[in-house]
Amino acid sequence: MDTLSTAPTSHGGLIFPLDMFRPTVLASVIAELLLGKVRNILDATLEISRHPTSPLALARIHGSVVGDDPAEFWRTNPDIALAASQAVPRQCFVYYVRTGQNRREGFLVAQRGQALAADDSDRDASGQHWPVTRLVDQLRISVSDLANGFPGGPRIELSLMEPSGNDQNLLMALIGQPPGEGDEEMDEMAEESPPPPPPSRGGGLTQGFSAPPPPSSASSAGAPAPSRAAPAKAPQISAADDAKRRASERAAELQELQQRSENAAKSLRFVEDERGLVVLVPVELAETEVLSQYIVPQVESSLPDGLPPSLLKTLTGRAIDFAVKVEFFSEVFVDAQPLNRPKFEERARELELAGTKVKALEVLAPRLGVGTLLRLGTTNVFVSRRPDAPLPAELLLSLLKS
């Protein structure tokens, strides 16, 4: 059957890597959010399906609360991602797609209750920048996979009014295993502290989505339903094993962060001015763990890695800031919303750097603070200083023109 011909023209949902989580908790969190908005969820259900060949889960809401335009529902309720990101161990996306004359695509990525990035488009004459189309390419799936709810993959369904069930059995069903015992172990896991943050997004927005499939998922990838899964016994998940796994992930994360910090420190460029120092750091804006080391309101007794110790004497009592390239407007925020090109063009003012005119706008970089977004041609640069502060023209222009 041609799934494209039967795909709905409007769809949306929540995408996240399939890892250890409680489906009933996810449903409860979403239900509480919608009830707080005085939405009718009496007939609402949460369907969670797993892609048949990838370790990805898709959660969709069915019922009158969604209305006739699911894409509009998910577009106007992006806070579902913020709430859901506290119930799943890794990053998650809320996405929406509407085809036809009123075509629109967008997504918001969240982690631990915070929005990390977003993108939205309802016009693109070139056809090159449809956010979800680009996103699914990175995830190695298709838009039709999302539109049809991961056809051929196992799925579960929960009532949002009464999200109840055995979480381990539900999770095993999504993995493609028959239900097993283990209620006591799940109870023990609920008493443990929350898991550590997922690996850094240094590799891009889909960094957290490259996790390997759960055990036996590869062998059951082609199974259309849990009842056809080949294994006869579900794997037992103990609290001790899960704690070891999380500790191992945390150690790997810290080691990766240390390596990236060391690599960045070897390639720093910087310039000193009356305010202090501006450091050009060769990473992405999303790598907040690395960049935060180069935001120092007032230098005291030490300098960030990679800066010559000889600078300490002259920098004591002054500030250190950073500059970094920014690929998408939506990586920064204005008025608590991801920035887009129309808003930038409307609000940005012209600024002259060493005889070159650029556009500048005060923005917020998530987890890093307020700064200035500079644009020259099609290149964007964020510097962690406000527009009225001194801006090192030569250093910033070298980045804008590179």
Helix share, percent: 25-40%
Q: How would you characterize the largest beta sheet?
A: 7 strands, antiparallel
Q: What is the radius of gyration? A: 23 Å
Number of helices: 13
Write the element-wise H/E pattern from the N-terminal end onward. HEHEEHHEEEHHEHHHEEHHEEEHEEEEH
Q: Largest beta sheet: what is the strand line-up?
A: 6-5-4-1-3-2-7
Distance between the termini: 48 Å
Uncertain parts? 1-7, 181-235
Strand elements, count: 16
**Global outline:** globular
Structural class: alpha+beta
Mean pLDDT value: 78
Oligomer: single chain
Estimate what percentage of residues fall within beta strands.
Answer: 15-25%
Walk me through the structure.
It is a single chain. The chain has 402 residues and is of the alpha+beta class. It is built from 13 helices and 16 strands. Strand 2 and strand 3 form a beta hairpin. The longest helix has 27 residues, at 239-265. The N and C termini lie far apart (48 Å). Mean pLDDT is 78; it is low at 1-7 and 181-235. Residues 217-240 have a biased composition (Low complexity). Residues 181-191 have a biased composition (Acidic residues). Residues 172-249 are annotated as: Disordered. This is CheW-like domain-containing protein.
Keywords summarizing the entry:
28% helix; single chain; CheW-like domain-containing protein; disordered N terminus; seven-stranded antiparallel beta sheet; 402 residues; globular; seven-stranded mixed beta sheet; alpha+beta; 24% strand
